[in-house]
Amino acid sequence: MEKLDSLKQAWGRVLFAHDKKDDEKGIVHLMPMTDEIRQQLEIANTKREQAMESMLNKPAPDFEMKDLQGKSWTLSKLRGKIVVLNFWFTSCAPCVQEIPQLNALVCRNENENVVFLALTFNNADQIKAFVKKHPFNFKLLPNSAETDKKYQVSLWPTSIVIDKAGYIKRIMNSSLQIEQEIESVINSL
């Protein structure tokens, strides 16, 4: 942490960058936040937000994935239930930070007609090692890269709430109030 603090002092704001190949090796890139990078990020964020907003109130893309126990999950077969998707990965600090809130949400809604699925591009071995230290009560679905693309996810964590008819009702990125935000949408459905 001291090393990170010294970088912040030297550079001002620090930008963390990951990619899927680096994540598999446990590599995180640190860069100074320059005006040029800030502008590029603003443009990318605007495009990402527009793409995500265009999905609201439209049918959620179907997918079929297996969880860590080998059970197959197909979105179209979950019609009639509210589905909460959480896109995350094991070395994403904001993802890890919101897991306790997401676990509490699962506990409060376990008798309801709600399905909680956590999709990650990490492989099964990486997830199994991760959950030994960080229990995660969602159904954990590894190798989600293709589904990430279908949902236009390029920022992690991203949570999506899908109604009983299969329509996307809410898309949320990292939030300190993620539990309350998702609970509010579930209650409204």
Automatic annotation (TrEMBL):
- Listed Pfam families: AhpC-TSA
Report which superkingdom the organism of origin falls in.
Answer: Bacteria
What SUPFAM superfamilies would the database entry show?
A: Thioredoxin-like (SSF52833)
**Segment forming the signal sequence:** none
Check the record and name the InterPro entries matching this protein: AhpC/TSA, Thioredoxin-like_sf, Thioredoxin_domain, Thioredoxin_ResA/DsbE_sf
Query: For the Thioredoxin domain, which residue ranges apply?
Result: 54-189
Q: Which PROSITE patterns match?
A: THIOREDOXIN_2
What is the designated name of this protein?
TlpA family protein disulfide reductase
Originating organism: Dyadobacter subterraneus
